[in-house]
Amino acid sequence: VAAPFFLYLPVGAYLAVWPARRNGWLSGCLPGIYLAVGAELSQILVLGRFVSGTDILVAAAGVCLGFVVVRRAGYRVYGTLRVVGGE
Predict the structure, then answer these.
(1) Under 8 Å CB-to-CB from 77, ≥6 apart: which residues?
(2) 63-84 residue pLDDT tens
(3) pLDDT value for 27
(4) How many CB atoms lie within 10 A of CB 40?
């Protein structure tokens, strides 16, 4: 259970200082959660693997905790990621 949590913790920390956008739904930890959901849903393509909602929730908790810890530590937003087709 701890492996997906600690795998996605740095993703949330990264999104805290380099968000996908400055404002809106995609500005926080939502892109990291999308990444976790996409990675978990890709297991459908592997024979013998099953999608687990628990893994999605654990990874989302890791993203959100990494995001909150870095923001509470006082790091400022340095810029935004370059999203193709974004603003």
Answers:
(1) 16, 17, 18, 19, 22
(2) 999 999 999 999 888 877 665 5
(3) 78
(4) 20
